[in-house]
Amino acid sequence: MTCSQRNPSKKYLKQCGHSKYFLVASTALRIHSLRSVIMPVTKQPSAFAPSDFQTGLYSICDDCTTFCYGLCCFPCLACSIASDMDECCLCGCCPALRGVYRTKYNIRGSLCKDYIAYVFCGACAICQLKRDIDTRKDQGVF
User: Fold this and answer.
1) In a domain, 16, yes or no
2) What's the pTM value of the predicted model, to 2 decimals?
3) Same domain (yes/no): 66, 121
4) Cα diameter, the chain
């Protein structure tokens, strides 16, 4: 048996004369691992205060380009939103994505209201979501 083996026995370490080094190294490793476990939390994750969408559902004049894009190519805008949120492109057209966004940023509402918005004015709902994402990107929050 040589000193370079991974797990030498205590008996061998005593014979070899490395027992003191082994005990010091294992104690230092234990202390180091305890320090990394007991480190205090210095910064708490921040939560968003309850709020509403930053623009209204029918605020189409706030961003006419987005509204025209959503009106002319609804699936393309929905896919763009889904990719902004790191979701599957097919998820962009469903009200559940709006619910995920509301939950993430603590926006008031319900899945039922999201569904109604998509049924009665899907282009307005998807454009409102895109405007909100763009606004949060400008603020550095998204």
Assistant:
1) yes
2) 0.65
3) yes
4) 85
Give the tokens for residue 125. Answer: 């709902």
**What is the Cα–Cα distance from 93 to 81, expressed in whole angstroms?**
9
CA 31 to mean position of chain CA atoms = 33
Residues 122 and 83 in one domain: yes
**pLDDT averaged over every residue in the chain:** 78
Number of alpha carbons in the 13 Å side-chain half-sphere of residue 74: 11
Residue 53 lies in a domain: no
Both tokens of residue 117? 């918005």
Q: What is the pLDDT of residue 60?
A: 87
Identify the three-state secondary structure at position 130.
helix
Task: Look at the chain and report how many structural domains it folds into.
Answer: 2
Supply the range of the domain harboring residue 32. 1-39
Same domain, 133 and 74: yes
What's residue 47's pLDDT?
77
Residue 19 or residue 117, greater confidence: 117
Contact yes or no for 117/124 (Cβ under 8 A)? yes
In terms of domains, do 78 and 130 share one?
yes
Q: How confident is the model at residue 94 (pLDDT cuts 50, 70, 90)?
A: confident
